[in-house]
Amino acid sequence: MNTHTPLRSTSVIGLSALLAFSALGCSGNKNKDNISWGGGQGSDNTLTVSRTGEFGLYAASDPKNPIMVFHVEQGEPLGFESDVAGKVIVVADGHRVQMPDGQYTWNRMEPNTGEKKETKK
After folding, report:
1. In the chain, which end has fewer C-beta atoms inside a 10 angstrom radius, N or C?
2. pLDDT (tens digit, 9 = 90+) per residue, 74-105?
């Protein structure tokens, strides 16, 4: 009687599942160029753009129309900072713009359409 087979099978299945989930996690999160600010967050939230493109800043109250659009090069910062008073400052393409309190998202825009790229979650 071979008592090692079930353990070995379980280990192989577990390892296979772990590798599959790891691969899905990496491939499912390719668009890392979207970032949000949830009003009153109080801490900086920036990322380094993974590829050059157009980025629109959207308010949660109007998710279809960008407030502003910037062309941001690969490797440049994009996101949000807070000033000493806790006000949100949007950061893109070397610009820093103070915004009214609220919830905002930077989204990569589709080329030539102005439409924001939908992200899969």
Report:
1. N
2. 999 999 998 888 889 999 989 999 999 889 99
Residue 91 CA to residue 87 CA, distance in Å, equals: 13
Q: Give residues with Cβ within 8 angstroms of 13, minimum separation 6.
A: none
pTM over 0.70: no
Q: Which residues contact 70 (CB under 8 A, 6 or more apart)?
A: 54, 55, 57, 92, 93, 95
CB 78 within 8 A of CB 49: yes
Backbone angles phi, psi at 9, to 5 degrees: -65, -40
Pick the range with the lowest mean pLDDT from 13-17, 82-86, 87-91, 117-121: 13-17
8 Å CB contact between 31 and 117: yes
